[in-house]
Amino acid sequence: RPRRTDQGPPRRVWLQPEDDVPHIRDRVTRLRDAVGLRPAQLSVATSLTQAAAEEYSSADLLLCSPLQAREVTLHWRPLGEIESLERTFGLLAAEEGDAERLGTRLGDDLAHCLGAGGEAGTARTAETENV
Questions:
Q1: pTM of the prediction?
Q2: For residues 44 and 16, what is the distance between their CA atoms, to the nearest angstrom?
């Protein structure tokens, strides 16, 4: 929370574009309001790269998964006030049954590409990732 004696801009919390969805954004916005942050202190980045650059070049924070934090060499810790946030991904295909077939064959690889953990055998047609 910014104080009157603080010099410079207040710290921001950066959301990635895939987190700019109601089931994540709304919970983080309620938390922002509950802890007394200004609306401008919660921002949506255009990409993970932009969000990480903002975090590296300032005292800002980035909402990300532990895997993403490791990939961009950031220290990760959970939000204390929110037990868990989940990203969900769905696999769609033009032909009926293709999504299930692709999910079965490529599910773990797709999950890895999306940053949804590295546990083998956990991929499904809809992937979930803790943030």
A1: 0.71
A2: 6
